[in-house]
Structure formats: C-alpha cells, structure tokens
Amino acid sequence: MIFDNRETAGRLLGEWLKEKLGKEGNYIVLGIPRGGVVVAKKTAEILGVPLGVLIVRKLGVPENPELAFGAIDPDGNIYLDKSTVEYFGLTPQVIQKVAQEELKKIREREKKFERGIIRDFKDKDVIVVDDGVATGMTVEAGVEYLKRKGAKRVIVAVPVCPKETEEKLKRYANEVYCYYSTTTSPFAVGMFYRDFRQVEDEEVQNLLQ
C-alpha cells in the first residue's frame, strides 16, 4: 500500500480510528514532530478532538545517525536498544553525549511548538500519532512518558509499520492501531508515501494554530 501524502494517511487513519474507538473516551491526539503532526492534524480533525505534540527524540549511532540505538523523552529519560548498543560498542559517555544533544533539541522544539504542548494527561485517553514507525524506539519512549504522567490510556496509531514493531509496541501501549502492517524488508517509512517531503518547523507551527 502506498499513501499519496501525510494528509491522506491522516485522513484514512482518522476514519479507521473513528470506527475502532467509538465515542466513549476523553481523547486527545499527540503528533510526533515533524511529519507526525501533519498526520495527526487530519486524524484529530476527523475524530473531533484536541491536537498537541509529543516531543521525543531518537538517539542515533554517531557514525550513522539514522540508525537508532535508543530514544529520549522530555524528562530526559533514556530508553536503549541494548543489542544495538552492544553491537556498536557504545560507551556510557557516548550515550550521554548523544542524549544531551537530543535533549537540547527537545527543549528548542518545546519553545517553537509551545502552542501544542500539553502537560496535563490525567484521566485522558491519549492517541500518539506518527507518520510511521520503524523500530518503534521513539514511540516507546513517548508511551512510557505519558503513562508516567498519568494518562488513563495510551493508544498508538500510525499509517504504516513493520508487523514485528506493531507486536512489540503492544507490550507498552494499551492499544496499537497500524493501518498498514507489513513484513516488507528492509523497511523505511518513506517507501510507503508518494510524497514524503521534509516538513519544516513553520508548517508544524501553522498546524498547531
């Protein structure tokens, strides 16, 4: 399956969730910047619920930043993929250096996307949306963060993900909805979009207005 763009993916995801979730619930939708916010905007509109952002960051291997060895949440908690850490021989010093750099980026984005920051999750059913997940490390960090902040339920909803990642996320989230779950290997989120252009900060800011 190929989505035309993130907006289309968000609309399809929203319509599907409307059937799956029903009307009972105190829902909010949180998009993971940047691309996830484009998807989340459409999803939130269709569900008729508030939109915010969840700023979590991937921790990338220094020699190959696109390859995640973990993730970090807004409180600075670090989540590691131990097998990747061991494979690349990443020392605690290297891990802390990368984590501090990414935490700084979280703080910068919190200022840029202040309009979308939600701090009270008590008794809320939180739907975490991204444009897709590969390893799921970043989403896992977000789910654990929201549970610690008192969310009633944490639901992960994405247009596309590997079947293996979908099953893994079910161990952390209350519910996981992946519109198109695939065994395609190798996997990259952009493979499933005709238009997967980079989303700029200004576009995210406009979506949050």
UniProtKB/TrEMBL annotation:
Its keywords, alphabetically, are: Glycosyltransferase, Transferase
The lineage's top-level taxon is Bacteria
- Entries under CDD domains matching the protein: PRTases_typeI (cd06223)
Location of the Phosphoribosyltransferase domain: 12-176
Q: Which InterPro entries match?
A: PRTase-like, PRTase_dom
Q: Does the keyword Signal apply?
A: no
Gene Ontology molecular function, alphabetical: glycosyltransferase activity
- The answer to whether the entry has keyword Glycosyltransferase is yes
Please report the name of this protein according to its UniProt entry.
Phosphoribosyltransferase
